[in-house]
């Protein structure tokens, strides 16, 4: 019930239009079913009683049915257009939520699982809101309309139809509860399989070069079999539901025909009324048969939608700041403060087994600090805490004399340039990738982008490319060398021009030539900045004021 309630609540601002179009569509369709039975009755009675007026009435109603049928697709068009807008808005919310999630979410969530939620599960809502809600509610409305119409024809035959409908609904609900459990299991197994696929693709070189591929293959066979088994169980329950609905529908139709024939023979009903009731009964039977399968598909969609809604309800970063109002002024802070960064008795833990403690550190304005220490001592975490990627459990972290939580996230991260070990380049042009560093109003002009690239020693190789700055990069910038990717990332940092620069082993993955170029870039990047750089190899240590060991 919770998933279904959320499924319907997230229609949001489109609620009135969505339900209005859906109700008009359902009323039109159910009215047409009733009119079919009326035409059947009038036509048969016109023949039986030689009444031309009845026949003319039947013809007029037929014309009305044809006109309504011609207009019906337009209603469905407005409906699907509205649903597309709903899914479009939902994906925007998902994307904004993704930007606002804390670092722990990205640490704990596989990228394939996140992509599945953002794409496949979100897209499934389009089908669910457009088709599945229509199918399920449509069958219910048709049954109600048919029962009301049948009451005007014959109470006895209506009772037979109602008994069968109640039995069908009872069986459908019971079996549907099992389908829901199986659907959740299928969703869980599919997410695991998608994550495994992603790992295999990402690590294909390792798999090809090592004998461990057989281990991964066995793991894949196991997960694939479990996923297939879960899917088989779900399909088996759906088939059971459809079979039960079909069987009860056939029993109802035969029962109506037999009882109707007896009533005609007894003179209590005419043949036209019996055929009208049979027409409605067949419509009800068809609706109840499809209700079973529609309800099963709807349940599966609701389960998939539940993953989307669970994601939207996750806790996000505190003081999420991409739209947060400014809290303190930051103008010229780097010129007014002697001490830029202060850590004091800082405590942080990823979990019970990984706990980090920093006694204290003070970085003065314009000072260049190199962080060193053994692997796992928390050097990279140190930089991330300064950017509020993780919440501090105790202790104090100050930037320009203010606690970090006095800044909005936008303010804080605009004052800091972060160069990770492997800077990511997005699919798009080189110019666009450099432009990602721009943190001021408007867009940077081309001269500013070129100047940043020259400062990063990237302009030379960019100019040699056929399309220059408009050269398109693949995801991750894999059509460039590691050194070239790093220089574009540094050009991005140059364009941002923040007073504080944090670097996490930026040269560890570079060859000797690229590292030498990086050292030249480093001088330009660090000029008049406050810098903290993590380094294992102590690359360029002579350029730093001091080395701090953690």
TrEMBL record:
GO terms for cellular component: plasma membrane. One of its GO terms (molecular function) is ATP binding. It holds the Pfam family ABC_tran. The keyword Membrane applies. InterPro entries: AAA+_ATPase, ABC1_TM_dom, ABC1_TM_sf, ABC_transporter-like_ATP-bd, ABC_transporter-like_CS, P-loop_NTPase, Type_1_exporter. Residues 20-300 form the ABC transmembrane type-1 domain. The keyword Transmembrane applies. It is found in: Cell membrane. Residues 341-550 form the ABC transporter domain. Keywords: ATP-binding, Membrane, Nucleotide-binding, Transmembrane, Transmembrane helix. Its main location: membrane. The chain crosses the membrane at residues 16-36, 57-75, 140-173, 244-265. PROSITE patterns: ABC_TM1F, ABC_TRANSPORTER_1, ABC_TRANSPORTER_2. SMART domains: AAA. It is a multi-pass membrane protein. This is ABC transporter ATP-binding protein. It comes from Lachnospira eligens.
